[in-house]
Amino acid sequence: MNGFVARRAQRSFSRSFPSYHARACEQARIADDLARRLSELGAPETFGRAFEIGCGTGHLTQALLRRFTISSLTLNDLLPEAADVAHAAGARFLPGDARTVAWPDAPDLIASASTIQWLDDPQAFMKKAARCLAPGGWLAISGFGTDQFRELRDLGSTARAPGLCQPEAMAGAIRSGGGDALDVLDVRQEHRRMWFENPTQVLKHLRQTGVNATASRIWTRHTLKDFNERYVRTFGASSGRVPLSYNPVLVIARKRA
What we know:
Layout: H1 3-23, H2 25-40, E1 46-53, H3 59-67, E2 69-77, H4 83-89, E3 92-95, E4 109-113, H5 122-132, E5 138-144, H6 150-154, H7 167-178, E6 182-189, E7 192-196, H8 199-209, H9 221-235, E8 242-246, E9 248-255
Parallel strand pairs: 1-2, 1-4, 2-3, 4-5
Antiparallel strand pairs: 5-9, 6-9, 7-8
Helix pairs in contact: 1-8, 2-3, 5-7
């Protein structure tokens, strides 16, 4: 993420930090899917050094610790509030922008869930992760594809995360960074929907999870009424409820020993 987006994201997620863990249901499911798939693909039960980027409130941290024993765990996040997550997990906390902080040397697991979409060049980040991984190490990363929040996009919103990407681009970046030494074991995307009673509840969900970090629109009674009417008219179900699309993208790779 560039400096402006980083500051906006930090402010937005700091405001939503108290409500994020309970409200970010899709992000919690994605984190659990990532850890489960890592285990299914044959990752070892014990990792010596693991590095998680963008730990937030701990969805992926908890999912990993339910399935793996990690001797030395380092958690990174922009928010200082995430230090409590690291303390609870018995981990070292590395605050700051993952693009610029010094990463731990040669982790045998690098993991990140629902974070890389905030980077303006997620492919460069993936290449770096592939290069830094120890021989025999594992890489497990999820982000979001270009259909993320498509309802908002189709209604004219330009408040998109800067690093939405296709699974093929993520896998290609990993292969580029790791060369012949790295095998991409799984790459996939899903299309999911959350349902809400009305569009105002959609906006509330976005605020409570901080994912409107790039939004700058000032709402008035008139613009909110117009948004609600257009959302229902375009996407509303016969029940009156409205959807919000999620497009998670997942990639898991292993560096040869």
